[in-house]
Specification:
Layout lengths: L5 E12 L3 E2 L5 E2 L7 E4 L1 H15 L24 H4 L7 H6 L5 H7 L1 H6 E6 L2 E6 L2 E3 L2 E6 L3 E10 L7 E20 L1 H7 L3 H16 L9 E11 L14 E3 L14 E3 L1 H9 L4 E8 L5 E2 L7 E2 L5
Parallel strand pairs: 13-15, 14-16
Antiparallel strand pairs: 1-10, 1-11, 2-3, 4-8, 5-6, 7-10, 8-10, 9-10, 11-14, 12-13
Helix pairs in contact: 1-7
Length: about 300
């Protein structure tokens, strides 16, 4: 059964954390200096999805392995044990070798390649698969202001010393982030993407974000997931994130909680109504603390959608 084209609007927020540090800038949160908008790479969101699939969705089954993940490199049988030395992390060529250098084996086994595509080094050649699921860079719906904090480490700086180490980091007190994505039914045929895979994608976006519970990624909360599925091949509205705004009574930089804003989807509602003849359905999941307006007149709106 072939997939229909879909568009995705996903919102989550971050409190007192760094949503996506830039390693080239001291791991600072990524911020557009001209606008004050927080930026999050699509790679960060894909990592969230991959980690959830790997940890919670049976990665060891034959159809749900994760291709892009850290694995210890295998010894080269052509070398002696001493020559192999410290093996490090498996590269793409070795990872493809885990699947007998067969692209079909990779596609049948690895859900992340079916979703996001990738380059598979097949012996002397390489095969490139364009991912059916593509995300733009995520961005905050308001300006942000980073905060610099210092903390004391648990251990002394050196053995026998009393002075403890210090931890320094930049965080954002609050950021409400929007991601926009497309599921391309044409590319899906090339990577063997299934409807079951796409359902797992949505589940992983929501629960993967909720399960970012490491020290540096605490306080991530999914707030809204909206999926528009179309009747017509290749038709889509585009840039759904551009039709979203916030109603608030305080300045952007003062925001600290989702309860301080109303998500205004009125412009999105208008464009959905305008194109309703092309739309099969609109599914939405919203966090109980999120207040939103603007979708009451949209046809085929499914608010009872369950992941």
């Amino acid at each position: 059964m072939s997939l229909n084209r879909s568009e995705i609007l996903f919102l989550y927020d971050v409190t007192n954390a760094n949503p996506n540090g830039d390693p080239a800038d001291g791991n600072m949160p990524r911020i557009d200096n001209e606008t004050g908008i927080n930026i999050v790479t699509d790679v960060r969101l894909k990592r969230t999805i991959r980690d959830y699939l790997f940890n919670f969705e049976g990665h060891n089954t034959k159809e749900k392995d994760i291709f892009v993940r850290e694995m210890e490199a295998l010894p080269d049988p052509a070398k002696k044990a001493k020559e192999n030395g410290k093996l490090g992390i498996m590269d793409g060529k070795q990872r493809t070798g885990c699947f007998s250098n067969d692209a079909d084996n990779v596609l049948n086994s690895c859900i992340d390649i079916r979703l996001f595509g990738g380059v598979l080094p097949i012996e002397k050649d390489s095969l490139t698969f364009t991912g059916p699921v593509q995300f733009k860079m995520g961005h905050s719906l308001h300006k942000v202001k980073p905060m610099f904090i210092k903390g004391t480490g648990a251990f002394a700086s050196q053995a026998g010393k009393e002075n403890k180490t210090f931890r320094e980091e930049h965080i954002l007190p609050y950021s409400l982030i929007a991601f926009y994505g497309v599921v391309n039914e044409n590319a899906a045929e090339k990577t063997k993407l299934t409807e079951a895979d796409v359902k797992l994608l949505y589940k992983s976006m929501w629960y993967g974000t909720k399960n970012l519970i490491t020290r540096s990624k605490m306080e991530h909360q999914p707030r809204l997931l909206l999926v528009v599925t179309y009747k017509d091949p290749s038709f889509f509205i585009g840039e759904l994130d551009k039709y979203v705004s916030l109603d608030k009574t305080i300045s952007d930089e003062q925001l600290r909680d989702i309860g301080e804003v109303i998500l205004n989807l009125s412009e999105l509602g208008k464009v959905l109504i305008k194109n309703q003849d092309h739309i099969q359905d609109v599914r939405i999941i919203a966090d109980s603390r999120l207040k939103y307006i603007g979708l009451d007149s949209v046809k085929n709106l499914n608010k009872e959608w369950i992941l």
